[in-house]
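Record format v2
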Amino acid sequence: MQDPAPARAMKAEKLRGIIRVAHRLAALFAPRSIAMIGATDKSFWSQEIFRNFAVCGFPGKVFMVNKRGTPAHGQPGYASCRDIGEKIDAGYIFVPLEAVFDAVEDAAAAGINFLSVLTSGFAETDAAGKQLQAELLTFANARGVTIFGPNSLGFVNLTASTPLSAIRIMPPVLPPSIAVVSQSGASAVDLYDFAQQQNIGISFIAATGNEGQIDLADIIDYLVDEPSTKAIAVFAETIRDAQKFATAAEHARKIKKPIVILKIGRGALSAQVALAHTGSLVGDDKVFAAACRRYGVIRVASAEDLILTAGLLAQTGFLRRPGIGVVSLSGGASTLVADMAEEMGVVLPPLAPATIAALREFMPQYGSTLNPLDITGAALRDTSLFTKSIRAVAADENVGLVAMCFTPPNNIHQTIDTALPGVGEGARGLTKPVVIVTTLLKNSNDYARGKITEHGLPFVIGGLDHAMRAIGKVSWWSGELGKSAPPLHVKGATNGRHPVTERETLDYLAEFGIPVIPASIVTSGEAAAAAAAALGGTVALKIASPDIAHKTEVGGVRLGLSGAAVAAAFEDIMASVAAKAPDARLEGVIVSPMRAGGLELFAGTAQDPIWGPVIAIGLGGVWVEALNDTATSLLPVSAPEVVAMLKTLRGAKLLQGFRGAPPADLNAIAEIIVQIGNAALALGPGLASLEINPLWVSGAKIEALDALAVWAEPAVNQE
Amino acid sequence: MQDPAPARAMKAEKLRGIIRVAHRLAALFAPRSIAMIGATDKSFWSQEIFRNFAVCGFPGKVFMVNKRGTPAHGQPGYASCRDIGEKIDAGYIFVPLEAVFDAVEDAAAAGINFLSVLTSGFAETDAAGKQLQAELLTFANARGVTIFGPNSLGFVNLTASTPLSAIRIMPPVLPPSIAVVSQSGASAVDLYDFAQQQNIGISFIAATGNEGQIDLADIIDYLVDEPSTKAIAVFAETIRDAQKFATAAEHARKIKKPIVILKIGRGALSAQVALAHTGSLVGDDKVFAAACRRYGVIRVASAEDLILTAGLLAQTGFLRRPGIGVVSLSGGASTLVADMAEEMGVVLPPLAPATIAALREFMPQYGSTLNPLDITGAALRDTSLFTKSIRAVAADENVGLVAMCFTPPNNIHQTIDTALPGVGEGARGLTKPVVIVTTLLKNSNDYARGKITEHGLPFVIGGLDHAMRAIGKVSWWSGELGKSAPPLHVKGATNGRHPVTERETLDYLAEFGIPVIPASIVTSGEAAAAAAAALGGTVALKIASPDIAHKTEVGGVRLGLSGAAVAAAFEDIMASVAAKAPDARLEGVIVSPMRAGGLELFAGTAQDPIWGPVIAIGLGGVWVEALNDTATSLLPVSAPEVVAMLKTLRGAKLLQGFRGAPPADLNAIAEIIVQIGNAALALGPGLASLEINPLWVSGAKIEALDALAVWAEPAVNQE
């Protein structure tokens, strides 16, 4: 009989369009008959691969295939897949390189349409290896075979008890919770070990190897709809297909399945964006961070955080409120939690008066009702303190998750026996998640694990820094769930425009409603003086040339001029530029009014080779280069996103109105930045960078004072 | 027969004055007969305390004392210490609060002169508890008894096999390596557990409780000379006696014994320093960080890092070169190491050509000879690759430590059996330390631990982020060993001066050779104009008042004035100040020349309640408040320290000469900052803060443009 509640839920989800048809990889990832191609008792790999079937409790058939048909691992041997004589769903190939093509041929002939390939010597080596891999894929596909790898430790679908992998699975197989997808094989093994030690069950694990045909994003896409996977942990070296990754991430957000990613290679700068200042400020890593923010993907910086954060999310799901209520037994731990929360931006809201009143009913006199709450070691003698304090804090309207800081001692069963039921009783039946946080990171303790299962206890996570960081991520992710992202704009259309110089670029920006400074181009000192007089007040003079990007460095800028100084400055500029940039084409000198007071911002776009057009904003002038104080977003960007970006700047305080200066109108700035992004997108992918520096701000008065468009050379992708 | 080598070394150390006489606590910490006062089979604490004697292999006698003389833990019971009838070295008291005084009385009468007290209810509770604790100490000391605690889990001297503690010691007792001193009892237990799991032996562990008589610094001081302790790990909530801590730390540095500290409560600001801007910028935590830097104490931010860093240092000792050579089996791990090294400032020098040539002899073709070096998974098949690559990298002249990134698999004994000997062979006999770094943090594996001991293998540390951070600390500490610190200047002498206003303060600074801006005080618009004319060029006008610290906020500053504007500005200022600060005493208006170009720095001193006079420096103007970009040092400060501080500023690039501006003369700035510090010290402890803002810098031209002295009110400590 079907359980009506899940059926109703499924119907509702279908109505909302959330459930998709079965994923194309679902059948491939759950084979029921498998050939081990290269099986031999002598091989370490063969032993490792074979033992996984028993550990996982594989319900299907496994066949040993090797050149001579020798029995292996106590099973009969076959000289070819064709010899097996029955339908085989998948094969794992670990024969020597020179035998791979023959093995594929044989498997295909036997009707196998999915092969995982452990054998290395392909694209991971050199150009010849790349070529060989391409040939292998063509060869296999022509025979109707899909390849996983090559050079891959394979995958284990623990939900289906199906290992096709040399990643050693260890008993006990824990209830499935998170999936692990890794581009590094060695790291996949380490991540699995660590998850197991932390009592975090794995639903699916894959080392994607060379990703000839099936990449990280394909597997993420499959896992998003895989119901036993509650969170997806990704170890990435590169995102090969941003569009596919973004689509999977957006779908994951829609159905509230968290993706946590550790991406390595954070320090590298993209060569493509070195063309202009913008490029050197944006950098690859800031763009990836921006992509993660946009798609609600949780980013972490260490392998421990990857597993622990995913493990935590799998248990908590999303929080209905961002605040974290912390209950602790020790002043030391409380203080350390407060330190870490502050450093990591985790919100520990003060407890509400009603909560404090409830706590006062039973709290020891010397405890504290701050958040973190210190119920003192008295809880070890009166374990009802655990129960009552967890329930009181969970009832607080500002709390979305309760973190119970308590370290079940390693070998003191007495404490475990008395304390854990108190914690479990506190958490039971609550609608808000409770987690147990240990002071230091340690392995799951078998005795404690048993008790945790026995009492249906919350997830245990440690140490404090890993836990607080992970909790902060859960809180952040929960706040991202309502959002949706515009499509990736890798190749924008072009409006056919091609501005280059300051004046052309400012005029172009004006068409997008961006306020730009008035200016005239003059070619003599007299004309400069006349233009200045017409503007009134003091003026700035700047060289106008399509060949000079950095005008200050060639003596091409003079500021704060009035009266006779204007004509003199014109001559100075022309002389200086003639000396320092003798080959530059000169259009004259731009005369503009000076803007006094206010702040100078900077906005610059770039083309990221993976994610497409991006924008960086920051405090302008020399500060952008001296402090590298920028915030980055994919384009197009929305006004609320820009406001959030502005608030992340180190110098954000300056925007609030400093020492009597008017506060900058963040919404007005945001609208203009959005338009700068749109103006850049409309120039198409041939634009390398559009830079507005400075973007002058005084309260709600905002004006682009200088601008520069840099085009890719040779101009490419301009359809 | 005495081993001649240690004897010679000891003689040499004596000559250098390094070895001190036996520490006053040494005898107390190694008792040979112990009374458990409060012993009873029913008590959890009593059970815990008793079991430690067997686990530690305590070679002396333990006596059970309780009110009724009941036997406990299978031992005979005594109704009092006096009843025991033989000499007892120490007692551990865990009787109820109301029985503590009687217990001390009895113990003293039995000739016990050292008592550890677990019983709580003293200073950790309230004012009455504080009073009771003071009475207890007086009571005990009058009877010749020294108290450890109260409210303390006690100490275990594992080197002497002496536990006087409720911290559960677990078998096997590992060879001693690090000492742990904690002000938090719960944390002491957690730290011990973690060290044990990480295969790091403990020489001594103490939870200092209320520190009535023996505090953190006393124990550190004892441990510095304790020979089985190779590194000291400290978990601190507060430093009660900075002088004592500093003395112990300075001695530790002299004999090259590392101290690693986790100090909690990093976010709190001292109320005392809120008087002036300086205060709010300095903050407690920056001062503690400065104290650690000054005394070569290693500071960490998590409990895991505390133990792992101390454990690593205990094995490596100091490095003769700061560079780290990394050997890895996987591109993924290499990249992650590079990311982390960059983020943590760990120096991974490029390998020398000779090293690369040596590596090329045996490296797999597809490996990389960068640092991190990637020898690939081929090392698992040919384990001589471990040996050869470790030796080649260790031979590199820029490398001080070799980090072998390799994760001994948890349950694959075959890999452990083949790989670890190759690593061990590589490290054997090298003068440079080698450590094994695992990708993730995991518990010591019993099988691997056995093999590690069998092969005399290097220390194993993980995961990558903990390890790289710890390695960076070893490198930093090694560079601090040659240095020595001036004495702590908690109470400086005073030269009797008492400057308050801008002009008085600038004149006072000039006496220390600090260049100050010329200025005259005027009391009329006419006089202002005349003063401006005498100075030539544009001038600044600023209100002169002993009552106005923030002149801008009351409209008391006008800049860039010339001609008729000067007299007008005088009137504006007087009118604005009269309106906004009607009660302020006004001395007139200061007329000073304007300084164009260059940079504005900031320097401000403060009195830290624990560490005494400190100085903060940073970029001046609004930036100091907007960015909080300051560097802090204890006073007096040396010129090289100031240069190092300037280089840590976020805006340090501006000092290098930006966009054609001349580079600032860091040495000249440093000499002036040193003198600012000296000028503050000479004003004595009554000075709350001496602030120079801005300190104008243009190349080698440096000038104090404004200054302010703030005095503590009421002026205290002015002898």
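The CA atoms of residues 151 and 204 of chain B lie 19 Å apart.
Chain B has 21 helices and 28 strands.
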